[in-house]
Amino acid sequence: MSVPLSSKEQSLFKQVVQLYESKQYKRGIKTADQVLKKVPNHGDTQAMKALILNSQGKTEEAFDLAKLALKNAMKSNVCWHVYGLLYRSVKNYDEAIKAYKFALRLDPESRQIQRDLALLQAQTRDWKGLVDSRKTMVTAAPSVRANWTAFAIAHHMAADYQAAEKVLTTYEGTLKNPPPATDLEHHEAVLYKNTIIAESGDYERALEGLKAIYRSNPDRTAVMELRAEYLLKLGRKEEAEKAYRALLERNAERRAYYDGLEQALGLDRNDSAQHTQLQDLYKSFAEKSERIDAPRRVPLDFLQGDAFKEAADVYLTRVFRKGVPSTFANVKALYNDESKKQTIEQLVLGYASQNNEENGKNWDLAVNYFLAQHYDYHLCRNLEKAYEYIEKTISLNTNPQDYTFHLTKARITKHSGDLENASKQMNEAREMDRADRYINTKSAKYQLRNNQNDDAINTMGLFTRKEANGGPLGDLLDMQCMWYLFEDGEAYKRQNKLGLALKRFKSIHDIFDVWFEDQFDFHSFSLRKGMIRAYVDMIRWEDHLRQHPFYSRAAYSAIDIYVKLFDDPNYGSANGDLSDADKKKAEKKARKDKEKAEADKKAAAAAKATAASEEVVKKEDTDPQGEELLKTKDPLFEAMKYLSPLLAESPLNIRSQQAGFEVFIRREKYLPALKCLVAASKIDNANPLLKEQTARLRKTLAELKEPLPEKIKEVIDAELATLP
């Protein structure tokens, strides 16, 4: 325990806690110093001061003071709790959990420590530990519904479905009066319990449960969808048919409902004998409204030959008369079938050659625009024809603010390889409607593809906050605008400005860390609001977070840079291959950039001095050019920071395995390198890079100065024999 305080100092200590909670950090430090002036070794006050220092960004000083606090008050639950909070802030979750558990031994009744421990166990997916923590919290406060719900979630995530259901049922049994119809939290809990029963495989009982809440639950769509799904899985197809027809009455554009109805009717798209029945089915829905698109578009997926041609003719004629600009995007999935692609091309070319006055004013515009996109598409690319049709389309367009066709013209130019003109044309499209954010971002993207980084950030700055710290780039970082960060990084990589490229890729890496960290707020928020199913979906989504394309793309590029830096430490040096004149220009620009960075730093310091004293200080970017990232002494260690999440969460992407091989073989980790090759061979055994990497591994192993241990050699030889 800490040294006892007098009533005056005790009152000041309580003020320290309140000032920390209200984020009045300077006053908190001042008040803590008042206590420590009287009682220098008071551990609890030292711990609270450490917590405030950490919030001000003084992490090392905070840890030193927290250790001193523990030395002065080893048996203080406050000191251990604060120690855990400090470790949590630096993402050392294992040490944080140890500290929380020690604090709980000293004060088993502390709800705050128990709550913090439970949140951290949920964050680290320690479901077994979370079950124990939530059980303790339910026992301590059995009247709080959120505690029961959290206890059930812990069992559910631990795959103990019966226990999860039992917890929710037990709570329902404690209710003296039935919840009112307006109690949305209760309705959500009932649906959540139903999904648990279904996940356990007992669809019959789950269906029975839905009957009881069918009319009372306000989320009627969810109830109807679950009922249709359960009926289909139970093989009760007549009832499932009615259920899906009822859903289609509510939303006739939802393709999943049509898929369910087909299964309920026992119809198979792959069976050509059933195509007539399927066509009649979709026709019955199409006749209900002229505005519905799905029942007219879906049959094109399974029809073949003359039947497809007839249906495609009807569908395309309809949308061209309306002038729907997204027609090509809606049908291009059909182009994977060569015969369908040719049929569509013949039909639309026929439309273009006809006298189409009777088809309305939109017809010629829509047909020519479709053909421009058709010939620009990679499966049937003919850029000369694409240019011909897009120019004709632009000449037919009468709206001076409609940039759609100019955007497509720029895309065609890009596909021809002329990135400079594509960028100019996209900027001309932007000028047609300066108030449109979409075309503004498109223009910036094309500028980045043409390595116009400065122009791109100026273009993006037209729609960013003027007062943002760090200018437009700072605002884009705050908004986590990953497409821009990635394209900016790729542009710098192409220009051999690898420090800035790594800076952008690291920003994306950090954004995903922030997304994962943001779960902390939702572990408690979702329970307070009762949004249980959405919370469970979020947890499962976060478990595969780094499968996201933006993360994988940035990671592959960063790994590629670090691997090349390992091979050649001078790779990416600013003036490596320049002439003397270009070197002088580069040095002059570097000096200007440095002077500008120093000026910005001074301005930021001045702004900070005049800012409100109680605000949380933002960390300064001490390496705006990414020079420190480029100077790393261990490039492969840095590469592993990107690679490990890829191999853990995106192992079915062959590029992840190939990147893993490149890192592991340079680290002389031959078994992991072989493991990556084996995984890659299962994904695509004919991949040419796989064969090249396999040959490199064989050559490397054959040239080893010291032979591998016999057992490892046997394993490697056996697996290598299975590779191409």
UniProtKB/TrEMBL annotation:
Keyword annotations of the record: Repeat, TPR repeat, Transferase
The protein's name: N-terminal acetyltransferase A, auxiliary subunit
Organism lineage string: Eukaryota, Fungi, Dikarya, Ascomycota, Pezizomycotina
Residue ranges of the region described as Disordered: 577-604
A single GO molecular function term of this UniProt record: transferase activity
TPR repeat copies, ranges: 77-110
Pfam families: NatA_aux_su, TPR_8
Listed Basic and acidic residues bias regions: 580-603
SUPFAM superfamilies tied to this protein: TPR-like
One Gene Ontology cellular component annotation held by this UniProt entry: NatA complex
Domain of life: Eukaryota
Species per Swiss-Prot/TrEMBL record: Aureobasidium pullulans
